[in-house]
């Protein structure tokens, strides 16, 4: 299946695009951003649930990609898979920084944080599924989001996360079990 | 025919089937051994609905392309101005070699001194605080080949000490031609270096765009580099120095990004291309221009990437903030065509094919 936005004969086209990107051509990077920025944004948004932050982090992904493109070689894998891997790391870094900051703030002003957590909880209740997904492990989140929200099949997810298909299947099964457990617990609590 | 694979394999195949529209019961019938355990997981998988969770990006996403273009400009500039291979960072063993280069001769010297009965002196010499005259002797017996392994290895420096001469990322001192915006007619053939170096300030002329005019200072942006320019009563200023004006500044480079202006000629309006962080030679099209416009759909007018080629339409909008999200072919329909594993590094900085 061709990469969205890539015309027929996508492979050759994508390969040419990657070569141009490696040569740091302005047009190539504009094209890559045009094609994939929203996909990268969507992935990050599903992971963190904050639109503005996801928009900024999506740009960070491309900045990192530019810095690392010299080492990227076209081997038939869509560049989007690579971008997803960078997005995974960017998101993980963001969440770590956020957790650190939250811990610092919590030590300083517990009452304010309590209020903020309450309001976030209220927002999350609007979307139990995403809330539940975000409470899974990083790897499980990555697989389930790409699989169910990114519309990828197992082979594509495997490329994007850089893990064997068997590992992806195992992560998927474990993630779904945890998700089911979280959602049913949630149902029981609210009932 | 009953399924003989693992549960994970069965679940994966079943998910594909139900997402393609097969009824759950029909799918479960294909995997009787796993049906009971699989049903709740399939139901959960089906409940994960992209359309319900997605929130359309704002124009901010498109506007953020400016950061990407800026980063691209920087990388292009670095590429264009690094003519030599970057000097490798000191490997872990370099310090050991450096230490050995000193300790071995020091040991020999100490042995010689011991032989001469100067045990106390030898003890001092063999410790890290080598007296200067001893260090000079050490230098005289240090093999010259070790100098290449010791940064700035003149022998006068402590082992492993680096010479503080400013260098570019490529490990070279900045040359006039490597200074963004500098006119080719640099008046001095010496590389312009900060005044802290023995070379002193260097005369140079830079064309750029003026900003942050405050008292006796302003900023001059040239090819993505922002110079802090200092003027004084001796500076000849021609024209009106205002933010956004294009100016040619002659003066002394007193730091990597600091100029002491001897003359400023304001020549006109700013160039069409935004200079801040923009690529020096050609800049990517700004968001909203031409075919390379990055996606920046305004809120509520979302057309997911690749949507144009799809014939299916995502489910309807849920509420004001939620829109049909990633499409029937939502983000990530990466067309995994069975590559050979070269998926790139994880942070964009390493070997992607590992």
What is the H-and-E element order of chain A? HHHHHHHHH
Instruction: Report how far apart the termini of chain B are.
Output: 40 Å
* Helical content band of chain A: over 70%
Give the total of beta strands of chain A.
Answer: 0
Euclidean distance between termini CA atoms of chain A = 44 Å
H/E element order of chain B: HHHHHHHHHEEEEEE
Question: How many DSSP-defined strands of chain B?
Answer: 6
Our count of helices of chain A gives 9
- Largest β sheet strand count, sense and barrel closure of chain B: 5 strands, mixed, barrel
What would you say this structure looks like, in words?
The complex is a heterodimer of chains A (191) and B (354). By secondary structure, chain A is mostly helical. Chain A has helices spanning 10-22, 26-48, 51-68, 79-108, 110-124, 128-134, 138-149, 154-161, 165-190. Residues 1-11 and 122-126 of chain A have low confidence and may be disordered. By secondary structure, chain B is α/β, with parallel strands linked by helices. In chain B, 28% of the residues lie in helices and 14% in strands. Chain B is built from nine helices and six strands; from the N terminus they run H-H-H-H-H-H-H-H-H-E-E-E-E-E-E. Chain B has helices at 7-19, 24-29, 35-47, 50-53, 59-63, 65-81, 92-115, 119-126, 132-141; strands spanning 202-214, 217-222, 225-230, 236-238, 246-255, 258-268. Chain B has a five-stranded mixed β-barrel. In chain B, a hairpin with a 2-residue loop joins strand 2 (217-222) and strand 3. In chain B, helix 1 (7-19) packs across helix 3 (35-47), helix 7 runs antiparallel to helix 8 (119-126) and helix 7 (92-115) crosses helix 9 (132-141). Residues 116-200 and 270-354 of chain B have low confidence and may be disordered. The interface between A and B is large, with 90 and 82 residues.
């Amino acid at each position: 299946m061709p990469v969205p936005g890539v015309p027929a004969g996508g492979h050759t086209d994508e390969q040419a695009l990657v070569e141009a990107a490696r040569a740091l051509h302005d047009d190539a990077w504009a094209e890559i951003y045009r094609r994939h920025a929203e996909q990268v944004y969507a992935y990050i948004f599903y992971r963190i649930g904050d639109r503005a932050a996801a928009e900024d982090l999506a740009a960070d992904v491309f900045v990192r990609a530019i810095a690392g493109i010299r080492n990227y070689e076209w081997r038939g894998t869509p560049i989007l898979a690579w971008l997803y891997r960078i997005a995974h790391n960017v998101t993980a870094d963001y969440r770590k920084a956020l957790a650190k900051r939250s811990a610092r703030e919590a030590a300083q002003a517990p009452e304010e944080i309590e209020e903020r957590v309450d309001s976030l909880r209220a927002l999350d209740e609007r979307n139990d599924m995403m809330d539940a997904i975000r409470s899974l492990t990083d790897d499980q989140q990555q697989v389930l989001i790409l699989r169910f929200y990114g519309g990828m099949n197992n082979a594509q997810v495997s490329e994007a996360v850089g893990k064997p298909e068997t590992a992806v299947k195992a992560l998927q099964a474990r993630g779904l079990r945890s998700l089911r457990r979280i959602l049913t617990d949630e149902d029981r609590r609210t009932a | 025919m009953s399924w003989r694979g693992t549960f994970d394999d069965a679940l994966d195949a079943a998910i594909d089937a139900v997402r393609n529209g097969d009824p759950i019961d029909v799918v479960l019938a294909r995997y009787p051994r796993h049906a009971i355990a699989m049903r709740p997981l399939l139901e959960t998988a089906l409940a994960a609905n992209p359309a319900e969770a997605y929130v359309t990006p704002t124009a901010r996403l498109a506007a953020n392309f400016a950061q990407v273009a800026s980063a691209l400009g920087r990388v292009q500039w670095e590429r264009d101005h690094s003519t030599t291979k970057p000097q490798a960072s000191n490997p872990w063993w370099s310090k050991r070699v450096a230490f050995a280069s000193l300790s071995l001769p020091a040991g020999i010297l100490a042995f010689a001194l011991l032989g001469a009965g100067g045990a106390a002196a030898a003890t001092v010499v063999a410790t890290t605080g080598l007296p200067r005259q001893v260090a000079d002797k050490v230098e005289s017996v240090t093999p010259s080949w070790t100098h290449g392994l010791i940064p700035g290895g003149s022998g006068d420096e402590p082992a492993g000490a680096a010479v503080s001469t400013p260098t570019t990322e490529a490990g070279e001192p900045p040359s006039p031609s490597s200074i963004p915006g500098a006119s080719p007619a640099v008046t001095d053939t010496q590389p312009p270096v900060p005044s802290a170096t023995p070379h002193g300030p260097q005369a140079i002329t830079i064309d750029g765009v003026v900003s942050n005019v405050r008292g006796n200072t302003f900023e001059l942006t040239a090819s993505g580099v922002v110079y802090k320019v200092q003027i004084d009563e001796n500076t000849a200023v021609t024209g009106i120095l205002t933010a956004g004006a294009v100016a040619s500044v002659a003066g002394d480079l007193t730091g990597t990004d600091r100029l002491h202006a001897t003359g400023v000629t304001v020549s006109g309006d700013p160039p069409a291309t935004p200079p801040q962080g923009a690529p020096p030679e050609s800049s990517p099209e700004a968001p909203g221009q031409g075919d390379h416009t990055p996606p920046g759909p305004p809120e509520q007018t979302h057309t997911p990437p690749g949507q144009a080629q799809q014939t299916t339409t995502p489910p309807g909008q849920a509420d004001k903030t939620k829109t049909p999200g990633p499409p029937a072919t939502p983000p990530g329909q990466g067309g995994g065509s069975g590559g050979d594993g070269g998926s790139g590094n994880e942070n964009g900085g390493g070997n992607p094919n590992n």
